[in-house]
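Example record

Each entry pairs one chain with its bound ligand, FE2/S2 (inorganic) cluster.
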Amino acid sequence: MTTVSSAEHTRRDFLYIATGAVGAVGAAAALVPLIAQMNPDASTVAAGAPIEVDLAPIAEGQIVKVFWRSKPIFISHRSKKEIEEAQKVNVGTLPDPEPDSARVKQGHDPWLVVIGICTHLGCIPLAHQGEYNGFFCPCHGSAYDTSGRIRKGPAPKNLPLPPYQFVSDTKIRIG
Ligand code: FES
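Structure tokens for the complex follow.
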């Protein structure tokens, strides 16, 4: 890095390139960053111990993935638009009818916590993908909405909800 600071134009080029690189990495990381879990050791967690997740670092619009009982758990900090999209759906038209209010904890509408395993044949869906901008399973094309409900494709059920609770406004315990 120090070698490029000698020529201003080179420095500018470098900064431009560096910014682009950080942007790309940042976007990928923002999509599904893996949160390090500092509580119980790996074998205890694998055996099924509850885990606590600090929500404070998760920005609005971001989805992170953690593991609980070896299962991927998606934690989505939904934007106002994503919440509205989830709430305005006519529940009767859904393959697995569930109101958004049954998918989140009361008073915590921004937070969707789901088990990230497709209910068709068990692939791990991609976050912020697909026709409904929720989750998309590329294995056979199942599209879930911002509430994790199946909207299109062969999956028969909504993404399951893990047992969890808020232990504070910014922390949940899963399990
Ligand atoms: S496993 Fe997800 S669509 Fe088949």
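The first strand starts at residue 51 and ends at 54.
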